[in-house]
Design goal:
The complex is a heterodimer. By secondary structure, chain A is an alpha/beta fold. Chain A has eight helices and ten strands. The two termini of chain A are about 35 Å apart. Chain B is globular. Classes of the chains: A alpha/beta, B mainly alpha. Chains A and B meet through strand 6 of A and helix 7 and helix 8 of B.
Chain lengths: ~240, ~240
């Protein structure tokens, strides 16, 4: 059974059509990127899977269960981090655990995920004291701590500098390889989509244009970024996006 | 030091330039203040004004924060209630005093409701603004975690609105004090407002001025306490 299944999904905002007749199936544990220009509906698609937006038509299911609203098994990492500025790093992680994990374990589990994303030593820093990359690590720790089956990421590394982005990508793959949750990753960066994913779903305004597979095993080292395979994929995806 | 320059300059100017037949000079007012404090008659009135102000302010804060946050969060409630609130807001608190006296009798029992009424609106409007300005991304983050509406309120809406709420509280505490003093002037038999009127009637202008200045100092003190509380609550904004 597919971890995420969209069948003939459409979405309109008033008169604006964001998605028409869009279908997509993501296997359990798969890493899929959604690539497309701004305004093509890729974030809308992600938010529909998250249950934050309601589809105007079609069916969305997660593990065969129809999606009717947000759920902890489908967690989101937002481009804007969406951290709570009045809570420190650990506090931002514990908020998602309170009431769901035994009270005595909340703090310990939060700390575990904070160090997993490389923020050990910054537990008691507040968001305004962190760089963009560190904020996004915190947001990632918060999402991971809830142990979602599906991780939905909305251009999570778009706002950080190139070097930080590469190291965040590597860490994400490391964590994904260890946990093997399903990842749906929205991006407008061709390089990012190739480096991270097993499949790249190329969007055009309103729907899916084509799906391209990335035949490269994990772990993917730095060499893959500049490899022949990657550069021919880059050309192919570039053509598709024109 | 710069912030004391203007008040000191004003005092000096008053001291050397005023016609003592119309306004007592600062030094005379200072003597009046000293008399007021030494004789001990001041403290009872000060305590009454302060307790009324704080009681009215407490009610106003509770009502204003709860109503303001709800109105800010629920757009429909806002559309439904705001025109009515805008109309009530335009009524001066002290204009309700005659009615309050009929309902509750003279003294604190009618003054406190008037103070509460006047002080509710600033905190209500600011809390409402805070809830309106709540970044939708934080609500979405909360929804993704499946926070129930109580947790969303407690852990997202309230903390995000704290800066706005405090702006409102600082306005409200001064509204509370001025309405309280106003109510005491209109129909009081005690309190600082009554003292001001009483010294005017008995022709003791230096004590009248001294009491007015005391009201100002009281307002400043109350504001400062709130500012300090705000600073503590919002310490997460500053590097530690």
């Amino acid at each position: 059974m597919a971890a995420i299944e969209l069948r003939a999904v459409s979405k309109r905002f008033g008169d604006v059509i964001a998605l028409t007749d869009t279908s997509l199936s993501v296997a359990d544990g798969e890493f899929v990127s959604i690539l497309g220009p701004s305004g093509c509906g890729k974030s809308t698609l992600l938010f529909i899977v998250a249950g934050l937006e309601q589809a105007s038509g079609g069916e969305v299911s997660c593990d065969g269960v129809p999606v009717t609203g947000p759920g902890r098994e489908r967690n989101v990492v937002f481009q804007e981090y969406a951290l709570f500025p009045w809570r420190d790093v650990v506090g931002n992680v514990t908020i998602g655990l309170e009431g769901h994990v035994a009270a005595g374990e909340v703090e310990q589990r939060a700390r575990h995920f904070v160090s997993m994303v490389g923020l050990a030593g910054f537990e008691h820093h507040y968001p305004h004291q962190l760089s963009g990359g560190m904020k996004q690590r915190t947001a990632l720790a918060r999402a991971l701590a809830m142990e979602p089956k599906v991780l939905l990421m909305d251009e999570p590394f778009a706002a950080v500098d190139a070097q930080t982005r590469e190291s965040l990508q590597e860490e994400l793959l490391r964590i994904w390889s260890a946990n093997r949750m399903t990842v749906l990753f929205v991006t407008h960066s061709i390089e990012e989509a190739i480096y991270l994913s097993e499949r790249v779903v190329v969007m055009k305004p309103g729907g899916v244009k084509k799906t391209v597979s990335v035949e490269e095993t994990y772990p993917r080292g730095y060499a893959f970024r500049t490899s022949e395979v990657a550069s021919s994929l880059r050309i192919e995806l570039h053509e598709l996006l024109r | 030091m710069t912030r004391f320059a203007l008040p000191v300059a004003l005092l000096i100017l008053l001291e050397i330039s005023v016609d003592a037949r119309f306004i007592p000079t600062p030094s005379v007012v200072a003597t009046g203040a000293y008399e007021l404090i030494r004789s001990g008659e001041l403290w009872r009135h000060l305590a009454l004004t302060l307790s009324r102000t704080l009681a009215g302010f407490a009610i106003a804060s509770l009502v204003g924060i709860a109503a303001g946050l709800s109105l800010g969060y629920y757009r429909a409630a806002r559309l439904y209630c705001m025109p009515t609130i805008e109309v009530f807001r335009a009524i001066p608190g002290v204009a309700l005093l005659p009615l309050a006296v009929l309902w509750f009798g003279l003294g604190s029992s009618s003054q406190i409701p008037v103070i509460a009424f006047a002080a509710t609106f600033p905190v209500l409007l600011n809390a409402m603004r805070g809830a309106e300005e709540l970044p939708s991304i934080l609500v979405r983050a909360g929804q993704v975690m499946e926070l129930d509406s109580m947790s969303l309120f407690r852990h997202v809406l309230v903390p995000a609105s704290v800066p706005f709420i405090f702006t409102g509280l600082r306005l409200s505490i001064v509204y509370a004090l001025t309405s309280g003093v106003g109510a005491e002037i209109i129909a009081g038999t005690d309190g600082l407002g009554f003292l001001i009127l009483d010294y005017q009637r008995t022709l003791v202008p230096e004590k009248m001025f001294a009491t007015m200045i005391l009201v100002a100092i009281l307002g400043l003190g109350l504001s400062t306490v709130l500012r300090a509380a705000e600073g503590r609550l919002l310490s997460y904004r500053h590097p530690s």
